[in-house]
Amino acid sequence: MRYYPLFAVLTLWSVISGALVAAPPPLLEKAVNLWAEGRQDLAFTQHTRSLNDDQSVHYERVERYDPSLPDAQRWRLLEVNGRPPTQAERRDIEDKRNRKPRKSAGNPPATYLDLENARKISETDRLAHFEVGLKREAARLVALDKLVLKVAVDKTNGTIEHISAALREPMRVAFGLAKVIDVDLDVQFEEPAEGPPPATEVTSESTARVRLTKFGSPQEFTWSDFKEVPVYEGK
Predict the structure, then answer these.
(1) What pLDDT, on the 0 to 100 scale, is given for residue 67?
(2) Taking phi first (over 0 means left), then psi (-120 to 50 degrees means alpha), and beta for anything else, what does residue 88 get?
(3) Dihedral of CA 124/127/128/134: which sign?
(4) Are 215 and 189 in contact (CB under 8 A)?
(5) Phi, psi (5° rounding) for residue 66?
(6) Would you kindly state where each structural domain of the chain is located, as residue ranges?
């Protein structure tokens, strides 16, 4: 099991309106279950930007997160405003990040996804495309009808090939203290170099981006350079 950084975005995904079905689509259910099998942890690069009202960059920071490393080394500050960080900046940012408790691997994807209400929207000879959202208890305080999630499943091996999500309209979160104004998720899967089929893993080309305003200040968070890493076994 692994903690999925993308579930920071997944917890924003909506339940898509559509025809109710008595059970999850079998192909989609199989693909989600395969996704949960044999997963490792996921390292990624996080790019944070604070924007001015004219959308110019006020402040930006680039960090690398690797959950396979010990607690004090998980977060590493790479850049501040396009330059290498100073020792003081590294101590300040890395100490704050690495002092936070390590998040657990979390529940399997099926725990969050509303598979029962998923619907097939299109199909080719090789791929079946579904719309599916989050269960209401998983999304908690988020407006559930603001986002759309699409999942492409390879019919030949029953694995997920692609997941995308986009925001229908801005939505308020965190008791109205922040407003999400854009979500762009593009997650691609491929067969790993090692391991038995039909296992898949997230490709390094996958990206996730969230733009929001917090206390009126525009901010942008981008996750990229994903890499499968072993689960940390230390304490």
Answers:
(1) 92
(2) alpha
(3) negative
(4) no
(5) -135, 100
(6) 7-228
Is pLDDT at 206 greater than 70 in this prediction?
yes
Mean residue pLDDT across the chain: 81
Decide if 49 contacts 212 (C-beta within 8 A). no
Quick one: which of 4, 6, 13 has its CA closest to 180? 13
Longest Cα–Cα distance of the chain, Å, equals 58
- The tokens for 58 are 């006020």
User: Phi first, then psi: what are they for 139, rounded to 5°?
Assistant: -80, -25
Q: What are phi and psi of 177, to 5 degrees?
A: -75, -20
The single-letter code of the amino acid at 229 is V
Structure tokens at 65: 């997160």
Q: Residue 151 above 50 pLDDT?
A: yes
The full DSSP string for the chain is: ----TTHHHHTTPPPPP----SS--HHHHHHHHHHHTT--EEEEEEEEEEE-TTS-EEEEEEEEE-TTS-GGGSEEEEEETTBPPPHHHHHHHHHHHHHSPPPP----HHHHB-GGG-EEEEE-SSEEEEE--B-HHHHTTS-GGGEEEEEEEETTTTEEEEEEEEESS-EEEGGGTEEEEEEEEEEEEE--SSS-TT--EE-TT-EEEEEEEETTEEEEEEEEEEEEEPPP---
- pLDDT score at 196: 62
